[in-house]
Specification:
alpha+beta, 6 helices, two-stranded antiparallel ribbon
């Protein structure tokens, strides 16, 4: 009985601290560096809010259609979050929307933008505090994930792919369109640059196209040697 009362009291204190932090964040400029918070949970929330606010304050860092990072925003976010990745493994993944390119425009501009927005939003649902997502080409998105294990990295990236494959949109002609992506996934080594890792992930994606299999995230081991 005594233990139950202690746990109840402890949770009450934690919830009260979180509530005070939520009130604090709703009433101040989160871009300030000297913010004192009460709960451990709010530190992660505040860190993400600060990063998002800094990026969104500069339109040059944001893809105008999807409202996530563009190439510049991705590079800047990576520099700012490098310290958060020191103790984790980092992966770089290039996801490309299938049957969707500048040279093969099957849909109107409005519907094309709707697809891009939906894909970006779906990816963002899986984004954690140390992750960076960006639209880096017409039909490509770059995901920089950080996790405690390589297995978890691939699992989470593949979960993104699965979530995107559940997207269904209806055209003006009442046709149902299913969206899928194919990806190139690599583990970034500590001594490699972000640019080099992106280049390797893109090459892996391009090589995977010859296998003629879509809606899959490819690793190097998936390709014939």
């Amino acid at each position: 009985m005594g233990m139950l009362l202690f746990i109840t009291f402890w949770y009450k204190i934690r919830l009260n601290n979180i509530y005070k932090d939520i009130l604090l964040l709703s009433s101040i400029d989160t871009r300030k560096k000297d913010i004192n918070t009460f709960s451990q949970e709010i530190e992660a929330i505040l860190s993400r809010i600060k990063r998002k606010t800094q990026i969104s304050d500069n339109p040059a860092m944001i893809d105008s259609i999807t409202e996530i990072n563009n190439n510049k925003g991705m590079a800047q976010a990576y520099l700012e979050s490098k310290s958060l990745k020191d103790n984790n493994f980092t992966s770089v993944t290039i996801l490309e929307i299938n049957n969707f390119s500048k040279s093969k425009r099957l849909f109107s501009q409005e519907f094309t933008q709707e697809i891009l927005k939906k894909v970006a939003y779906t990816i963002s649902l899986h984004e954690q505090i140390t992750d960076i997502i960006a639209r880096t080409d017409y039909n490509q998105f770059t995901l920089i994930f950080s996790r405690s294990s390589k297995e978890q990295l691939f699992k989470d990236v593949d979960l993104v792919r699965q979530s995107i494959s559940e997207i269904e949109l209806t055209t003006q002609k009442e046709e149902t369109i299913k969206v899928t992506v194919t990806g190139g996934f690599i583990i970034k080594t500590n001594n490699s640059s972000l640019e080099d890792s992106i280049r390797k992930a893109k090459k892996l994606l391009e090589d995977a196209k010859y296998i003629n299999e879509t809606n899959k995230v490819f690793q190097i081991k998936d390709l014939p040697q």
